[in-house]
Specification:
- The strands form 3 sheets. Strands 4-3-6-7 form a 4-stranded antiparallel beta sheet, with no helix packed on it.
- The protein is built from 2 helices and 8 strands.
- Helices cover 19% and strands 36% of the residues.
- Strand 6 and strand 7 form a beta hairpin.
- The longest helix is centred in the first third of the chain and has 22 residues.
- It has one domain: Immunoglobulin-like (Sandwich), CATH 2.60.40.
- The relative contact order is 0.24.
- It has 149 residues and is an alpha+beta fold.
């Protein structure tokens, strides 16, 4: 085997390893869950980074309506995140005033779309899950309940 053949084999192995690493990243996921939106219009959505990720998962979590509203899919809120490999973390998302007003009429079931990449890839992988949002009941600001007198 000559030098050119060995170089070609080395390049082929490096290329296939990089392709396998890129193909191995399945993206951050959002498990099915029921979440509440507090009076500041903030909800915490759990996002999981797979253990196969190289380093950490970085990306954006977007909440969108699962059905079209007046012919359009609405973005309810979004937030950037960075999560360590193999970990599940809550991502705080501030929802829009329109979403807050929709929650006054009951719960909604938007799609949570986690678009992410790990340390070895630059292209994003998107995963979509339907979650349930409802308005938090009672006092969520930590002030004392009931009357002072």
């Amino acid at each position: 085997m000559g030098r050119a053949t060995l170089s070609a084999v080395a390049v082929a192995l490096a290329t296939s390893a990089a392709t396998a690493a890129a193909a191995g990243f399945s993206g951050a996921t959002v498990p099915r869950q029921n979440d509440t939106v507090n009076s500041n219009r903030v909800t915490k959505v759990k996002v999981t980074c797979p253990t196969a990720a190289s380093g950490s998962c970085a990306g954006k979590l977007t909440l969108k309506t699962s059905n079209k509203v007046h012919g359009h899919t609405l973005t309810l809120g979004s937030s950037n995140f960075t999560i360590a490999s193999g970990q599940t973390q809550p991502v705080k998302v501030k929802v829009s005033k329109t979403t807050w007003n929709m929650l006054k009429h009951g719960k909604i079931k938007p799609n949570a779309i986690a678009s992410s990449h790990d340390g070895s890839t630059t292209s994003n992988v998107a995963n979509k899950t339907k979650i349930t949002l409802k308005k938090a009941s009672g006092n969520t600001q930590g002030a004392p309940q009931g009357s002072l007198y």
